[in-house]
Specification:
2-enoyl-CoA Hydratase, Chain A, domain 1; six-stranded antiparallel beta sheet
Length: about 650
């Protein structure tokens, strides 16, 4: 029958979160086992099954990019020469020879040594002063590699002014800032010098894995340990999912219930460029390995960490925040319900807002499960006789697949929810087999670009079955892939590989395009650099044969829910567009988005230097969080319109029904 349960091999962990893992590696296996690990990647990957010239090129490109993420160590000519030196690396590895990788490392050691000596010589000059007119293009992709050694030196000088201004703006005296910066480059040189061969092999293994797609990784033993910690809700820290991008630690997702979310100032896409420790010492973390940066940010609950943030808009702004570390509070990450009385056009509506930040749960049935929490809250919605329900998935980055399927089933009678298709075309369907409908009233699903993976499955099913109206950002994150993590024997870490794709009941994949909103609202996240399709080497979207259920609604009139008609969607979108166009709040959102899109990616040193005085004038950088957003307010207004249209539809149905006796 259509009800099937998706199982993975023993020892593998199924992952449904929206973000690519950090590309940090340490402590890895020997060269001789690399060919076998590569064969396993190609055996299990959903798309790639043989080593092609394109994959080889991508792997080399990934490896060199990570060795020089800031593009300050190699000129373009040197980059091309180094790439050519390992052009035949895959043939060498097959023969058990990884020497080209270690030789490449030795050449980069000399580049690090040169940079350390250059910086020391530059700032130790008696006439050195920070050039406040200096302007730096932040994104290494945009500025490209230096064409000559002279251009490389000029770029190093620019970076020195930028880095020195960051120290000084955080209260460090110039002489002390010089010592810290010189020490930083010397430590980077020594750290690179001391890298062991197995760590070099691990780095190349991960470069190969991420050439397949952005979510496949090689997890060395230490990184696997970090990965497991990150999956634990008891993690102490600030509650932020970080990734490394071009030498920066970037906030990918603010974890619901964490300290950063409570603080309210840190936003997705912010770059953390410095950390102030408990003793007041400021540490510049640009180009620092992500694992080391994370270690600085983590800490015991109740302690304070200072962060220097770089945010890109029309201009580049930097500012300091202080966050009190805490454990992620499961009660705050759990599903929650509140009711709001709204009056629109002379009518009063009682609207229920059910927020589900993640699809949390545990294999231990005695532990808290989101399925049980949501079921309980939906019963409360019915008891309170709410006119309509807004299911808020706008902060939901994913979670347990089966829980997303179960909760989807609360709103329909029974039917297929998601298809999972592997590289061989084998498709398994997860379906709701419980005929009970927990809520059958008017429903809006509120989504955003943050909504990813498992939340896209729920939203996609509701859209395909015309069960709810999707309101929010233009589309969700767009991650429609499944990863498995398979531990390796001998404490050699684990392979994380993308093994399958998700498909909605209508046959569409959530990959890249996600779930499109029926009613689109302006959002600052609707930029070209946020979402799956903007990640390097992300897999293309596919389609499959639709598998829509035929018994999703009840045959009994008293137990049916009203399918959302196309005409209803058009009316809702038209009414919303009028309100949004006339809204001052959305004018501000549009202005913010325009600033982000028009930003040139450059920062002047004097902008950093002015920050300190500005913060003093404004009385610090305390939290400024407001749970109410224009998007949520408009989503509620759309819900009230849907309630009205549903009432009209019910009245028409009853009026056309024959009398009974």
């Amino acid at each position: 029958m259509r009800r099937t349960i998706f199982r993975r091999a023993l020892g593998a962990l199924l992952l449904l979160t929206g973000l690519a893992s950090a590309s940090v590696v340490s402590a890895a296996p020997s060269c001789t086992v690399i060919p076998e690990y590569m064969r396993r990647y190609l055996r299990d990957h959903v798309r790639y099954h043989e080593l092609t010239p394109e994959l080889e090129k991508r792997s080399i490109e990934n490896h060199l990019r990570r060795l020089d993420s800031s593009r300050t160590l190699m000129t373009q000519v040197e980059y091309e020469q180094l790439a050519a030196s390992i052009d035949g690396i895959f043939d060498s590895i097959k023969r058990g020879n990884c020497r080209p990788l270690t030789d490449l490392h030795k050449k980069l050691v000399r580049s690090h040594e040169y940079a350390a000596k250059f910086v020391k010589g530059y700032v130790d000059r008696d006439d050195y002063a920070i050039d406040e007119t200096a302007e730096l293009t932040l994104d290494p992709e945009d500025r490209g590699r230096p064409k000559t050694a002279a251009e490389r030196d000029d770029l190093l000088r620019l970076l020195v002014h930028f880095q020195m201004s960051t120290y000084v703006s955080n209260g460090t005296e110039l002489a002390e800032a010089k010592k810290k910066l010189v020490g930083r480059y010397e430590r980077r040189f020594r750290r690179f010098l001391e890298i062991k061969p197995d760590e070099i092999y691990a780095a190349f293994m991960d470069a190969f894995a991420t050439a397949l797609d952005p979510h496949s990784n090689y997890l060395s033993p230490k990184v696997l340990e970090d990965f497991r910690i990150g999956m634990s809700l008891s993690l102490e820290g600030i509650g932020v999912a970080l990734s490394e991008q071009d030498g920066y630690a970037v906030a990918e997702r603010i974890i619901p219930g964490g300290a950063a979310e409570k603080h309210g100032m840190l936003k997705p896409k912010d770059k953390i460029i410095g950390v102030t420790k408990d003793n007041g010492e400021f540490v510049d973390i640009i180009d620092m390995p992500l694992r080391d940066a994370v270690s600085l940010i983590r800490g015991k609950a109740g302690t304070t960490v200072g962060l220097t943030i770089l945010r890109q808009g029309e201009t580049i702004e930097t500012f300091n925040i202080e966050i009190v570390r805490d454990k992620i509070d499961l009660s705050e990450q759990a599903a929650s319900l509140r009711f709001e009385e709204k009056e629109y056009d002379g009518q009063t509506y009682k609207l229920a807002i059910l927020e589900l930040p993640s699809f949390y749960g545990d294999q231990d049935p005695s532990k808290r499960q989101c399925t049980e929490d949501v079921a309980r809250l939906l019963r409360q919605v019915n008891q309170e006789k709410a006119d309509g329900l807004l299911l808020d998935l706008s902060r939901n980055g994913g979670g347990l697949l089966q829980h997303a399927v179960t909760i989807s089933g609360y709103f329909i009678r029974e039917g297929e929810i998601v298809g999972i298709e592997d590289s061989r075309g084998h498709r398994q369907i997860l379906a709701d087999g419980d005929e009970k409908i927990l809520y059958r009233g008017p429903m809006v699903v509120h989504t955003s670009r943050v909504s990813a993976s498992a939340s896209e499955i729920l939203a996609g099913a509701m859209k395909d079955y015309a069960r709810a109206v999707i309101v929010g950002d233009d589309h969700t994150f767009g991650k429609g892939t499944v990863q498995t993590v398979s531990p390796l024997p001998g404490n050699n870490g684990a392979l994380k590989v993308t093994t399958a794709l998700f498909f909605r009941p209508g046959g569409k994949s959530t990959q890249h395009s996600g779930v499109n909103a029926d009613v689109v609202l302006p959002s600052v996240l609707a930029s070209d650099d946020y979402g799956e399709k903007h990640q390097r080497f992300s897999l293309e979207a596919q389609t499959t044969t639709p598998f829509l259920g035929t018994q999703v609604n009840s045959p009994l009139p008293a137990k049916r829910w009203n399918p959302v008609k196309v005409a209803t969607l058009m009316t809702l979108a038209k009414n919303s567009e009028k309100r949004v166009t006339a809204s001052a709040d959305f004018d501000e959102v549009r202005e913010q988005l325009a600033k982000v899109k028009s930003g040139q990616g450059k920062i002047r040193v004097d902008e950093i230097m002015k920050r300190r005085q500005k913060e003093a004038d404004e009385g610090g950088t305390g939290a400024d969080k407001d749970a109410s957003t224009p998007q949520l307010a408009e989503a509620l207004r759309v819900l009230s319109d849907l309630v009205n249209l549903s009432r009209s539809q019910n009245t028409a149905i009853h009026a056309s029904s024959p009398p009974t006796s």
